[in-house]
């Protein structure tokens, strides 16, 4: 017999505090405390929640997150985005919707290097937004392209959210997740480019002239030091020269040196950059601490096991169960940011999918891409609001051009869900 009381207390209290406008991290922590009070006296309950929040952050692998956040801030201020855009312009600028395709490719490269969708959306929107308006692109279409393409960097490594998934899953290899993210991220980017090109062709947006080969080579050479970071970080991890955590520290040193070489970062800028990265890191770490306490509470109350029995009681068909999980996560993504969603729902759904024979790495790709869609949807989509704010438009106006991009992101999600090779091919190729 399933005990529904802890589930009801957890869900209703969490929704109640969110509805009051309580910050997500505190909503998670308080609802976790109220749930454990069902089974435990108040003093042990308070002590346990506090202890679990503290020990939840006591992981060496979590050091990678503040380092990658800092390297992302350094990249945003270091002139890397402009060089990536100039290179992308020579490669795809002549195609229909050239500026939109430049935005998508640049966002894929910038997001991969910075590991942050918000950093990518901010950088691409502020640089390419005015150019797209000048060339006759509507602000709404430009915002839709920027918002959706920014999320590809959460799949293409290095990615902070993949590190969070590794933590929530109980130790899935970060190196394996990083390598697996390339194909899903690139497929999603290509599908977004197809939609952008068709939309731009129908609207008759201008394109750039074909770039001579020497110009392509020149722009590639200028952008090469920025792109080299991916080779150093991922290549070093795959080759076994360093761990993901050590790679994050190397990324900070490399981007700092690159910023000085480009003369885009001055010594006086470092205090501001460090402060911004510290603010972001504090938010992320508080979310992780609170979510780890909720994960422990759910485990203590057997909530994942009960939900697993419930779902498997509906059907033992892998296709049906994955469809149900995807629909639940799509709904969750609308109302919850990606970090707490990964930390809370990974311990619930991972045991279910592993029972069905799904590889945890493949499930990680599916879950992250699913919740990336939530970053682009109201009312909580953080990347959506960043993109709208930079473009100077509104949610009402940007929804229509966003719809075809939503559809292809969902198409990509279903491809990754039901074709395991898209996530696991590179792992098998490199023997990870």
Description:
The chain has 2 domains: 1-56 and 289-300, no CATH class; 57-265 and 301-430, no CATH class. The longest helix is centred in the middle third of the chain and has 31 residues, at 270-300. The model has no long low-confidence stretch (mean pLDDT 82). It is an all-alpha fold and 432 residues long. It has helices at 5-19, 24-36, 42-56, 64-77, 80-92, 98-114, 117-134, 139-150, 160-168, 174-180, 182-203, 213-239, 244-261, 270-300, 303-314, 318-335, 338-355, 360-375, 382-391, 395-418, 421-430.
Integer average pLDDT: 82
Poorly predicted ranges: none
Find the structural class using helix and strand composition: mainly alpha
Q: Main sheet?
A: none
How much helical structure, as a percent, in the residues? over 70%
Computed Rg: 22 Å
Q: Quickly count the helices.
A: 21
Which descriptor suits the 3D outline?
globular
Tell me the span between the first and last alpha carbons: 41 Å
Strand content: under 5%
Q: What is the count of distinct domains?
A: 2
Number of strands: 0
Output the helix-strand order: HHHHHHHHHHHHHHHHHHHHH
């Amino acid at each position: 017999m399933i005990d529904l009381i802890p589930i009801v207390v957890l869900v209703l209290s969490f929704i109640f505090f969110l509805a009051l406008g309580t910050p997500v991290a505190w909503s998670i922590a308080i609802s976790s405390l109220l749930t454990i009070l069902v089974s435990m006296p108040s003093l042990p309950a308070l002590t346990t929640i506090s202890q679990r929040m503290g020990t939840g952050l006591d992981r060496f692998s979590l050091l990678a997150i503040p380092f990658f956040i800092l390297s992302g801030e350094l990249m945003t201020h270091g002139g890397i985005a402009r060089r990536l855009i100039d290179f992308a312009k020579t490669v795809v600028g002549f195609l229909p919707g050239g500026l939109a395709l430049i935005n998508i490719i640049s966002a894929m490269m910038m997001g991969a290097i910075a590991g942050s969708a918000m950093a990518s959306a901010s950088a691409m929107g502020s640089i390419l937004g005015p150019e797209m308006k000048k060339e006759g692109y509507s602000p709404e279409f430009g915002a839709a392209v920027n918002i959706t393409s920014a999320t590809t960097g959460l799949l293409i490594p290095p990615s902070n959210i993949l590190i969070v998934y590794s933590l929530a899953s109980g130790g899935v290899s970060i190196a394996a997740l990083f390598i697996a993210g390339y194909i899903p991220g690139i497929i999603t980017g290509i599908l977004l480019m197809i939609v952008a090109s068709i939309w731009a062709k129908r609207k008759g947006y201008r394109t750039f002239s074909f770039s001579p080969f020497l110009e392509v080579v020149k722009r590639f050479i200028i952008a090469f030091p920025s792109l080299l970071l991916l080779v150093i970080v991922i290549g070093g991890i795959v080759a076994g020269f360093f761990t993901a955590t050590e790679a994050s520290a190397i990324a900070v040193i490399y981007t700092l040196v690159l910023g000085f070489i480009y003369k885009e970062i001055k010594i006086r800028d470092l205090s501001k950059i460090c402060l911004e990265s510290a603010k972001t890191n504090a938010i992320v770490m508080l979310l992780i601490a609170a979510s780890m306490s909720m994960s422990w509470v759910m485990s203590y109350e057997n909530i994942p096991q009960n939900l697993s029995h419930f779902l498997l009681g509906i059907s033992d068909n892998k296709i049906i169960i994955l469809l149900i999980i995807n629909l639940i996560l799509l709904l969750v993504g609308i109302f919850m940011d990606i970090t707490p969603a990964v930390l809370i729902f990974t311990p619930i759904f991972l045991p279910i999918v592993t029972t069905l024979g799904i590889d945890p790495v493949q499930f990680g790709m599916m879950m992250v891409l699913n919740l990336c869609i939530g970053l682009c949807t109201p009312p909580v989509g953080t990347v959506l609001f960043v993109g709208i704010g930079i473009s100077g438009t509104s949610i009402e106006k940007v929804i229509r051009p966003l719809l075809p991009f939503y559809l292809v992101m969902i198409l990509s999600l279903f491809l990754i869900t039901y074709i395991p090779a898209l996530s696991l091919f590179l792992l098998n190729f490199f023997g990870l």
